[in-house]
Amino acid sequence: MHIITVAKREIKLGFRNSWTYSFLILFTLFTMAILLLQSGVQSAEGYTDMTGTMMNMTLYLLPLLTLLLGSVSVAIEKENGHWGLLSTYALTRMSFLWGKWIGLAINLLTVLAFSFGVTGCIAFFFGKPLSLSTLIFFWIFSSVLVLIYLGIAIAIGALVNNRWQALIGSISIWFITVIIWPLLFISILSILPYSMLYTIIEVSTFMNPAELVRIFAMMKIGAGSVFGPEYNQWVTWVNSSFGTPVFIVVVIIWITVTIGLGALIWERRDQRE
């Protein structure tokens, strides 16, 4: 019950928050610009220029915006004393964080649906209509990214004391998982023996949510060959009958573990103080 109450409050606050509408405007403009400017010329296995550009833009922009919105939202509650007031109602940290996650998730998924809906209408108006399946694919791809990174954002907010620490933590996580990850990945693989290559690839992919979602999505649309022979086993299991269920379980684990750890560390730290 407490979780639902916090979630409802977060939904109301979210749609009154200028950050939400800034997120909506920015993401809609970027989406429209890319989808309207790309020629959409088909390449191997149906993978298009538009698809690749859109996925790359989403991977760069969406995790950062989600991390900032989620972590700052929690940090502000602690900084301005709202959490202190809410805690007098026997509200646990775990319930509070889950309520924040659910409320913010509903807000952000609504924003994404609106953004892609507007983009589809404008693309049709300019004579470059997009299929419903394409719009649904991008919405699902973006939604999964949002849900995972929102869990990370909530954990960051639980661990920091103010919004500036939340900003620094969010940018750091985004920089590591999105910007510098390929360089780190290549550097590590270059010094490891070949026998360990496949194991390191599999483990490291599950450790980075951005990479996990990107690889899974591209393999689902038939573009798995771009990753090379090292990912042949991934192509097999992703396209198997248990590929999607396993992916969903991994996503749930990511969200549950990050929020759970955030609540646990926050509670133990307060007990020591």
UniProtKB/TrEMBL annotation:
Signal peptide: none annotated. This is ABC transporter permease. Keywords: Membrane, Transmembrane, Transmembrane helix. The keyword Transmembrane applies. GO terms for molecular function: ABC-type transporter activity. The keyword Transcription does not apply. One of its GO terms (cellular component) is plasma membrane. The chain crosses the membrane at residues 18-37, 57-76, 97-126, 138-161, 173-201, 246-266. It holds the Pfam family ABC2_membrane_2.
